[in-house]
Design goal:
The structure holds 2 protein chains of 2 kinds. By secondary structure, chain A is mainly α. Chain A has 12 helices and 4 strands. In chain A, a hairpin with a 2-residue loop joins strand 2 and strand 3. The chains are: A mainly alpha, B alpha/beta. Chains A and B meet through helix 8 of A and helix 2, helix 3 and helix 4 of B.
Chain lengths: 340, 240
């Protein structure tokens, strides 16, 4: 992206730009609040790292969905299909590369995983492209129909998974070198959780670079604010939307692979099961906001992990309560996008 | 007589169940500024949005520079050389002023000389160049919206009520800017502020109930208070 020359500034006083750091502090505050309740610092670190890993996986899955909603007001309840298909494609690739997966070599294991992720992302990206053309495009601007038809798409995708891969629960073993934990003092951190955090941070950083440092990223941000004006400037927002939809689907595929490896089992319903959390994340983050989605994913995962340990009976409802609390504080979410 | 730059012939536009434009006939000469006047709800904004392709005409033809653009997708109309400044200004609040301008320059980096010219018209933009557009005042947002429309040379500017809610001092600055702008390009301006419109307009069209009910020279309408009363229910003096 070429930036127009920055003019010399005048000596007159300029208004201060307000930075909103409060939502960033929320995960820190939540984890600090949990410490005295958890009691044991070792357990607290384990829970917190688990929450960060889970949060990163949810973020990877949710980031595309929030942009899809922000850009074209499309409610895609079929997003879970890309999670499931991504996981099953990776299962097939890892099955074919079982030699690379079972050998105790980080290099070979990562190669196998890299190939599985690549196939899953390409497959779900293409599926997303087709899904947009066949299922979403006819129902632009019709929310009720979008909900019904995308849920229908999810059901069809799950049934096709049963036909192709069978209806039984599958085991998805971690590659050998990624099993076990790294022990630091008294704290044992599972290796895969570290990998999940790294992948999540890389995806987040890449999205920030694309959204803030490239022309296509500027167009996406502008389109989320006011798609009509982007068209009036001469850009084809629908073409942009198809691209975002396909990339969002590919990211859901990546998230599906990670989520299946995290659980080490998968069924066709793996995507549908996690979608409740994904929708909570994009709502509390602010529809269309990638930064809000990132913070929201960490918050939701922390809430799930801490309450599962402290108050297992409340765990299921805890994230609904979190959503209610955040929306009472900020009805448009943590980082509301300025809409037209 | 030279061929008009833009022609609307018998244009009808429906928005949902509402029949807003009911046979608009308008020919816009090349160069200068044509002002579209009319009371609220007469169909002025709908006319601009129909030209821009944001609403599709249900009947009639829209011809721009010899090419039919009725029902053509909005991006194609923009690429044909028409820029649009909506009533809401529609600046991208989360993007900086610089980023708003980068997007407006479709063909690449903004020409430095042109940028200097724009800064000459709207000095506040230079000052707020790296600021999010959301922090600008209403007048500054309007300047950005217009600057975005002229980031590259355009054949026709459609500008919808640029003075709405703007401080008088900014309006004065805007008059000078528009006087210079109309030397470069053709402008179709929708305006409620008659003094502003009369000081800049070369031609005028008045709308009522979705039709053009008067066309002529702006100077003639500005002189004829009886005609103003009949067409607009106002006089120039009352709006100064």
């Amino acid at each position: 992206m070429t930036v127009a020359p920055a003019p010399a500034t005048t000596p007159e006083a300029l208004p201060a730009i307000k930075h909103d750091y409060l939502p960033i502090l929320l995960p820190v505050a939540l984890s600090a609040l949990a410490l005295p309740f958890v009691g044991n610092p070792t357990t607290w670190v384990t829970l917190t790292v688990a929450a960060l890993a889970m949060g990163m996986m949810i973020f990877v899955i949710a980031s595309g969905l929030t942009l899809v909603f922000g850009l074209m007001d499309v409610l895609n309840f079929g997003h879970g299909a890309f999670i499931a298909v991504g996981a099953y494609l990776a299962l097939s690739v890892l099955g074919l590369l079982s030699g690379w997966v079972q050998v105790d070599s980080l290099g070979w294991n990562l190669m196998a995983l890299g190939l599985a992720v690549t196939v899953a992302m390409i497959g779900t990206g293409l599926l997303g492209w087709a899904f947009e053309r066949v299922i979403v495009r006819p129902v632009y601007g019709q929310h009720l129909k979008q909900i019904l038809i995308t849920m229908g798409g999810l059901i069809v995708a799950e049934q096709l998974i049963h036909v192709i891969w069978g209806g039984d629960q599958k085991a998805m073993a971690l590659p050998t070198a990624l099993r076990g934990a790294v022990v630091i003092g008294d704290v044992a951190i599972e290796k895969f959780r570290i990998l999940a955090v790294v992948v999540g941070l890389v995806v987040f950083a890449a999205m920030l670079v694309v959204l803030n440092r490239t022309r296509i990223g500027l167009l996406i941000r502008a389109g989320v604010e006011n798609a009509e004006m982007v068209e009036a400037l001469g850009y084809r927002i629908r073409r942009l939307f198809v691209g975002v939809f396909a990339v969002g689907s590919a990211l859901a595929g990546l998230g599906g692979v990670m989520w299946a490896l995290y659980r080490e089992t998968l069924t066709a319903a793996i995507g549908g099961d996690i979608m409740v959390l994904v929708f909570i994340v994009i709502i509390i983050g602010g529809l269309g906001s990638v930064g809000g989605c990132f913070i929201g994913a960490i918050l939701v995962a922390m809430m799930a992990n801490y309450t599962a340990f402290l108050l297992p009976k409340v765990a299921l409802a805890s994230n609904i309560l979190l959503m209610v609390a955040i929306l009472m504080w900020r009805p448009q979410g943590l980082y509301p996008v300025a809409k037209r | 007589m030279a061929e008009p730059l833009l022609t609307l012939a018998g244009v009808h536009t429906h928005i949902g169940q509402y029949h807003i434009l009911q046979g608009v006939d308008l020919a816009l000469p090349r160069g200068g500024m044509t002002v579209l006047l009319g009371r609220n709800g007469a169909g002025k904004t709908t006319t601009l949005r129909t030209i821009m392709g944001l609403w599709k005409p249900s009947r009639g033809t829209v011809t721009f520079d010899g090419r039919s653009i009725g029902g053509v997708p909005t991006p194609d109309i923009a690429q044909a050389g028409i820029a649009y400044v909506p009533e809401t200004m529609a600046v991208f609040a989360d993007l900086t002023v610089a980023e708003n301008m980068i997007l407006a320059a479709r063909s690449g980096p903004i020409d430095t000389a042109r940028l200097d010219w724009i800064f000459g018209l709207f000095p506040a933009l230079k000052k707020f160049w790296q600021f999010p557009a959301g922090v600008l005042s209403g007048g500054q947002k309007q300047m950005l919206a217009i600057a975005r429309a002229i980031a590259e040379p355009r054949t026709l500017l459609l500008i919808d009520e640029p003075t709405k809610g703007i401080a008088p001092a900014i309006i004065e600055a805007m008059i000078s800017a528009f006087a210079e702008l109309k030397r470069e390009t053709t402008i179709l301006l929708v305006e409620q502020n008659f003094r502003f419109a009369a000081s800049l307009g070369d031609h005028v069209a008045v709308m009522d109930d979705g039709r053009i009910v008067h066309r002529g020279a702006m100077a003639d309408l500005a002189r004829d208070e009886a005609l103003q009363q009949r067409l607009l229910g106002l006089s120039l003096d009352a709006h100064q």
